[in-house]
Amino acid sequence: MAEEAGKALNSHTLSVLVENKPGVLTRVASLYARRGYNIDSLTVGVTENPTISRMTIVVHGDENVIEQVTKQLNKLIDVIKVVDISPQESVDRELALIKVSADASNRSEIIQIVDIFRAKIIDVSPKSLIIETTGSGDKIDALEELMRPFGIKEMVRTGKVALVRGVKLTQFDK
Amino acid sequence: MSAKESERFSGAKSLIKSLEYEGVDTIFGYPGGVVLPIYDELFDSDIRHILVRHEQAAAHAADGYARATGRTGVCLATSGPGATNLVTGIANAYMDSVPMVALTGQVATNLIGNDAFQEADITGITIPITKNNYLIKDAKELPRIIKEAFYIASTGRPGPVLVDIPKDVSTSIINYEYPETIEIKSYKPTFAGHPKQIKKACELIEKAERPVLYIGGGAIISGAHDEIFSLAELLMAPVTTTLMGKGAFPEDHPLSLGMLGMHGTRYANYAIIDSDLLIAIGARFDDRVTGKIESFAPNAKVIHIDIDPAELGKNVKVDVPIVGDAKMILKKLISTLKIKLPRTQEWMRKIETWKKEFPLDYEVSGKDLRPQYIVQQLNELCSDGIFCTEVGQNQMWAAHYIRTKKPRTFISSGGLGTMGYGFPAAMGAKVGCPDKDVWDIAGDGSIQMNIQELATVVENDIPVKVAILNNMYLGMVRQWQELFYNRRYSFTNMKGQPNFVKVAEAYGAEGIEVTKKSEVRDAIKKALKSDKPVFIDFKVTREENVFPMVPAGAAINEFVEYGGFR
């Protein structure tokens, strides 16, 4: 058990193909709630096949937790395939919208930072602006930190979406 | 009509036809507003409908029927309260992996979500306690969904599947055609074990000197009892079963250790602790079995055979996990094993010593009416019967003293521990196996949780026999209060018990009261001779305890030592 406790709590990204049916998200979410697994983020959207949706779930835990999460997900009848893509080379992105306090005195400073981050300003008003940014979670965290002194009024993040690089596919061959 | 022909039927008639195709002969149910179209079709059907007095009993009866027969049990309830009353029964079936299809009525589709009269989101409510569930929105989907429901409920690791049927789906007219095959791309259970893993298991088994077979309910579901018998004799290895695994190996066999765990025999628990190889078959390392997990089989390599991959490595570290059907895997394993002479002579000698030193026992002398004695007499006088149990002390005494010899003859609520389970489950078992004597071993607390089913068994001529071990306490809770709460019997003393004999008679059943040890056998014989349901009210010693006992969270060889009993 000492060995178990010593295991690092790593972040894992699970790519989960599910039937595109009502109630599936509830089943997945309720499984996490019931078994006490800690979800960092969960995104869901339809795939190239309209009958199938893909969930990208980021979950923290040691190897045992990740193994149980994967197995319990696989038990759900509507879950077609679960792949832990963390060990594979993959690309991942997150989208965030950040509404920042801004007026004439600091607008240009904000715009400079936004440019450095290759983010976009998608709404401007006399007292605020909204920044749209995509990228890794770290990049969004960094931008958020830099905006904080100006005053973040509201913010929304989508959570991570991810795909394995190259020709390899997460097909439904379960 | 063949399944291929298409006819125009209502959703309700389509449902009944589909159930007939699935070979359903009995439904346990209770009518109500939105299931009227289904009940109207049932009226003309050959399917036997048993009208229970509470929906919870319908689910437990379907569960008992399924466990006794191996077929899928079916229960039917109306929407709202009818459906929610099934919930405990469904959860019970889920925990013990029982194949069940629960059919519920739902308000019409245009009312769903409007808080309509008798509306409940039963698919939402039962997500965590069903293997899968469906809300049928379009009557055209009904035949496929029913086919899927029965397939999912009965294959892989079995479990309950709920199908919620809105009233307008029941009344819609469709072109009915029952599908012959199904294809669920996301559901493909593994049956054959991986050959490499089986080979690895064989290597471990061939080296083992102190192996133990640890058998759970999965072995019974798989029908693996013959293979377990062969493996045990081939290895000359002792066999211990969980509560759910009782019947997977004959308990009168010299290799049997009985049950393990919290109320396991001393020798079973000692064998587990001392073993060098544990062969777990269809068992899930429940906390009532393992106790303190770090101390469970500390020196043993573990081979774990289970059809549910999620059980492998869930609670204990496994050296050789094998996913698949226990019977198929064991067949392969036995044929691969190279064992000329078993290496367990010394091990078995050690176990024999433990068996002699620490037998299952209780205070036998004197005239006191001990519950253990009653169960022993039931075991002797009705050795070919089916025994269901309620939950609590009665259940553990039954587990200790009913020496189960065949699978599907000991039926008990293991995972959920549902008081009120045994009586309706016995009703279901008797309906499924009418030629067997079916007993419910009950406590005075548990029997009152579904006592209304006396009406059902009398009306439907289901002559189950109920042995009430009446100590006028919630016995197991009282035992814990005695041992761990300084005898502060907080609300476990049930002073207001009814006269069970008169209750039975009031419903048209037979009642027998037994107060003396000398009356026990005659009462049992009289009950067996009767063609009616019978309650025997055994007024037993009030403060009898279940021993052996390991406190929750302790290692399984750390038994409670109390009053000369251990």
Automatic annotation (TrEMBL), chain A:
What the entry lists under PROSITE patterns is as follows: ACT
Q: Name one Pfam family in it.
A: ACT_AHAS_ss
Which parts of the chain span the membrane according to its record? none
Specify the pathway: Amino-acid biosynthesis; L-valine biosynthesis; L-valine from pyruvate: step 1/4; Amino-acid biosynthesis; L-isoleucine biosynthesis; L-isoleucine from 2-oxobutanoate: step 1/4
| Keywords annotated in UniProt | Amino-acid biosynthesis, Branched-chain amino acid biosynthesis, Transferase
Question: Domain ACT: where?
Answer: 13-87
Q: Which reaction does it catalyse?
A: 2 pyruvate + H(+) = (2S)-2-acetolactate + CO2
Q: Which cellular component, as a GO term, is one annotated location?
A: cytosol
The enzyme's E.C. designation: 2.2.1.6
UniProt-listed GO biological process terms: isoleucine biosynthetic process; L-valine biosynthetic process
Enumerate the CDD domains for this protein. ACT_AHAS
- Spell out the molecular function terms from Gene Ontology: acetolactate synthase activity; acetolactate synthase regulator activity
Which branch of life, at top level? Answer: Archaea
The yes or no answer to whether the keyword Amino-acid biosynthesis is present is yes
Q: What class of enzyme is it?
A: transferase
User: Mind telling me which NCBIfam families this protein's record contains?
Assistant: acolac_sm, PRK11895.1
Cited function: Catalyzes the conversion of 2 pyruvate molecules into acetolactate in the first common step of the biosynthetic pathway of the branched-amino acids such as leucine, isoleucine, and valine.
Record-stated family: Belongs to the acetolactate synthase small subunit family.
Q: What's the subunit arrangement here? A: Dimer of large and small chains.
Q: What name does this protein carry? A: Acetolactate synthase small subunit
The protein's organism comes out as: Methanooceanicella nereidis
Taxonomic path: Archaea, Methanobacteriati, Methanobacteriota, Stenosarchaea group, Methanomicrobia
From TrEMBL, chain B:
What reaction is this protein's catalytic activity?
A: 2 pyruvate + H(+) = (2S)-2-acetolactate + CO2
Q: Which UniProt keywords apply?
A: Amino-acid biosynthesis, Branched-chain amino acid biosynthesis, FAD, Flavoprotein, Magnesium, Metal-binding, Thiamine pyrophosphate, Transferase
Under the heading CDD domains, the entry gives:
TPP_AHAS, TPP_PYR_POX_like
Cofactor binding note from Swiss-Prot or TrEMBL: Binds 1 thiamine pyrophosphate per subunit. Binds 1 Mg(2+) ion per subunit.
Keyword Cell cycle part of the UniProt annotation: no
In short, the EC number is 2.2.1.6
Which InterPro entries does the UniProt entry name for this protein?
A: Acetolactate_synth_lsu, AHAS_TPP, DHS-like_NAD/FAD-binding_dom, THDP-binding, Thiamin_PyroP_enz_cen_dom, Thiamin_PyroP_enz_TPP-bd_dom, TPP-bd_CS, TPP_enz
A Pfam family it matches = TPP_enzyme_C
Q: In which pathway does it act?
A: Amino-acid biosynthesis; L-valine biosynthesis; L-valine from pyruvate: step 1/4; Amino-acid biosynthesis; L-isoleucine biosynthesis; L-isoleucine from 2-oxobutanoate: step 1/4
Domain Thiamine pyrophosphate enzyme central as annotated: residue spans: 198-333
Q: Which domain of life is it from?
A: Archaea
Q: Which cofactor does it need?
A: thiamine diphosphate; Mg(2+)
Does the record carry Amino-acid biosynthesis as a key word? Answer: yes
Q: Which GO terms describe its molecular function?
A: acetolactate synthase activity; flavin adenine dinucleotide binding; magnesium ion binding; thiamine pyrophosphate binding
Q: Domain named Thiamine pyrophosphate enzyme N-terminal TPP-binding: which ranges?
A: 11-123
Q: Where is the Thiamine pyrophosphate enzyme TPP-binding domain?
A: 391-538
Tell me a GO cellular component.
acetolactate synthase complex
Listed under GO biological process in this entry are:
isoleucine biosynthetic process; L-valine biosynthetic process; sulfur compound biosynthetic process
Q: What is this protein called?
A: Acetolactate synthase
Which species does the entry assign this protein to?
Answer: Methanooceanicella nereidis
Gene name linked to the record: ilvB
